[in-house]
Amino acid sequence: MKSTKESIGVVYDDDYLIHTQGQHPERKERLEHIVRAIDQPADEGLVRLLEPLPAEIDDLALVHDRDYIKSIDAACRSGKRFLDMDTYIVPDSYRIALLSAGGAITGLRKVMSQTLRKVFVLNRPPGHHAEKSRAQGFCLFNNIAIAAEVAKRDYGFNRIAIVDWDVHHGNGTQHSFESNPGVLFISTHQSPAYPGTGQIKETGFGSGEGYTVNIPLPAGCGDVEYDLFYQNIIIPVIDQYKPELILVSAGQDAYRQDPLAGMSLTFEGYYKMAEHLKNAAERWTGGKMLLCLEGGYHLEGQAGAVIQVLNALGRWELPHGETSPGLKPTRAAEQRLEEVLSVQKEYWDL
């Protein structure tokens, strides 16, 4: 029988390691562990490494103020070390941030060329906390939002779905599109947690009302709880929206041992989330998906989770390595499901 395995594109450049500062949680070792983990599937032809090109200023300006873009360049040139208490820079950070956003665009163009249907961008610095004119939460430029805007500008997409499974709410991405019905933004995130946004009743405004779906989860949620929300809200909403392209803000910090969060996802949980979205992409986008790295601070855990995401996207049939205990969802998660449904039923058939 002919194999159904699919090669997955992975965008990476060693220059992504230059943006790093000591023992800060968002450091180069995050990528080094992932790159080592993908060596074997790359040797087997299951991973195709892609070299990123830097983003142009006009690309960044689709999301960010031009004065803000200039200010990041100037801050890096000045030798400044921090933009806020969490977000550091080094002299080369502006150049690497252009390459990080450019990695998302490179991945998009490869997906649109139809040579690869699915691409995972191993870029840093991450992006989903970056606002129009503010760096925040380790993020300088909003990579996933820039990719979405380039997809609209260059390929004429009218319906793009962004799913953010990072444990922290993607405030910058939400604010980029909350009045735009052409982008559906869905976020699962621990709550309460940084940055404090992403409450259930944040559903967008104006013509974009109803196209922001926030799922703030209580601490401790794991594979069973996440699957509950994918089956009852996330996938039904995506199927009704019928996206032409699916983008994923892929942060692996909901992993059970992550030091900056309190969730309980295992490698199997990441596999299942990726599988749900892959199946939705097969139904609506011709299989086209672009994933960008966000958070994830347990080095071995993040690398293992990324491998399982690639495993699901490519149907590689690798063992999960970790599996959930198969328990029923917690009562707190079931109650949160009812609360989210009560708001989202106003906009979707759920």
Describe the structure.
With 350 residues, the protein is α/β, with parallel strands linked by helices. The protein has one domain (8-344): 3-Layer(aba) Sandwich (Arginase, Chain A). 39% of the residues lie in helices and 12% in strands. It contains 11 helices and 8 strands. The chain has helices at 29-37, 39-43, 57-60, 66-78, 93-112, 143-155, 171-177, 223-241, 267-284, 299-314, 331-344, and strands spanning 8-11, 47-50, 118-121, 160-164, 183-190, 212-217, 245-250, 289-293. Strands 2-1-3-8-7-4-5-6 form an 8-stranded parallel beta sheet, with helices on both faces. Helix 8 (223-241) packs parallel to helix 9. The radius of gyration is 19 Å and the shape is globular. The mean pLDDT is 97.
Keywords:
alpha/beta, Arginase, Chain A, 8 strands
Q: Which architecture does the CATH hierarchy give at level 2? A: 3-Layer(aba) Sandwich
CA-atom Rg in angstroms = 19 Å
* The first-level CATH class name: Alpha Beta
Helix share, percent: 25-40%
User: Structural class of the secondary structure composition?
Assistant: alpha/beta
Q: What's the rounded overall pLDDT mean?
A: 97
Question: Any chance you could write out the topology, listing elements then pairs?
Answer:
Blueprint: E1 8-11, H1 29-37, H2 39-43, E2 47-50, H3 57-60, H4 66-78, H5 93-112, E3 118-121, H6 143-155, E4 160-164, H7 171-177, E5 183-190, E6 212-217, H8 223-241, E7 245-250, H9 267-284, E8 289-293, H10 299-314, H11 331-344
Parallel strand pairs: 1-2, 1-3, 3-8, 4-5, 4-7, 5-6, 7-8
Helix pairs in contact: 1-10, 5-6, 8-9, 8-11, 9-10
